[in-house]
Specification:
Radius of gyration: 17 Å
Helix content: 10-25%
CATH architecture: 2-Layer Sandwich
Shape: elongated
Number of strands: 7
Number of helices: 2
CATH class: Alpha Beta
Distance between the termini: 19 Å
Structural class: alpha+beta
CATH topology: Alpha-Beta Plaits
Oligomer: single chain
Order of helices and strands: HEEHEEEEE
Amino acid sequence: MSVKVPISLIQNINKDIRGVKNAPSNYPRRFETAVLPIAICWPGEGTTSGRQALRVQHRQYLVDVYVDPITQGIFDDPLQTTMDLIDRFVDTWSGLANDEEDWVLDYGEDSGYRVDLDRDQDITDSGWRMDLEWTPRKYYFGFRITIPIMVRWGTGLLR
C-alpha cells in the first residue's frame, strides 16, 4: 500500500477549492508568489491492521495551506484570505464526509485500493497561523487541516 494514492485523491479535491491556485501531488522545492495559495498534503500518523485477504489502514493526512509569505506589518489581506480558505476547506471536506456517496474517494476497481474518508474521525484545522515554514527562515501565513482517511486493499477487497 502506498501512502501516495490518497494524497493524489485529496489533492484532486483541494485543487478545486475556490481560492487555491495550486495543489500538487509532488512537493515543490520552493514556492513562487504566483502559485500561492498552495495546498501541500503530507501523510501523518496511521495504523494498519488485517490480513493478506483484506488490510485496513487508518491515517491522518495533513494539508498545509500556504497563503502568503510573512511581510512585516501586512496582516489584514493574508488574514482575510486565510479565514476564507479555512471555511472553504472545512465546508468541502465536511460536506464530503456527510454525503452518502461522495465520502468514497476511490472504490478500488482500477487502483486496487478503496479510499474513504474515515467518518468515525473528526476533520480538524489549526486555525490561522503565522508559522508555516517551507524553507529555513521563510515563513508563511496559512493553516493546516487534518483529513482522516481509511484505505482498504487485498484479495478480498472486491468480493
